[in-house]
Amino acid sequence: MAKKQKQQAGGTPATVALTTTGTPYTVHAYDHDPSHPSYGEEAAEAMGVSPERVFKTLVADVDGALTVAVVPVAGSLDLKALAAAVGGKRATMADPALAERTTGYVRGGISPLGQRKKLPTVLDTSAATHPTICVSAGRRGLEVELSPTDLAHLTAAVLAPIGRA
What is the CB neighbour count within 10 angstroms for residue 80? Predict the structure, then answer.
């Protein structure tokens, strides 16, 4: 029943989570182009925002446990650094179908907020250099802009240098 109410209200689980907690945020919607080679770069271009301020949400497997990594779309994820950030030894990218089932979101629309199952989250330290950052709002073509401090608080994220330029 709660799921239907969320859908009727027009929000995604991510925006519902932000609204419920009273966290200030701005929604940015754009027309998603399925032929674009990068979801994150497409979002930055469509919103006219620097790719250093737009962050992608990736799901990795760290020693058998799914872990969320939030890094700038302008770079890539350093798997070794991610593993170290959560006290693990080895990280690999998670199976996309498993990531979708676990988070409740589709690839290219996975948000660090409002996930079906709360996963350990690591936010790249570069986020702290910006007053606000953009992350997926839970579907392709929809982003939320919020302070990195609020994002870290809501996801109980560890801040660590996990991004590579």
Answer: 13
Strands laid side by side in the 91-93 sheet: 91-93, 55-62, 65-72, 121-124, 158-160
Q: What is the pLDDT of residues 28-85, one digit of tens each?
A: 998 888 888 788 888 888 889 999 999 999 999 999 999 999 999 989 999 999 999 9
**What single letter denotes the amino acid at residue 113?**
L
Q: Global pTM? A: 0.90
Q: Give CA 132 to chain center in angstroms.
A: 14
The two tokens of residue 108 are 């290219």
Burial of residue 139 (CB within 10 Å: 0-12, 13-18, 19+) is: middle
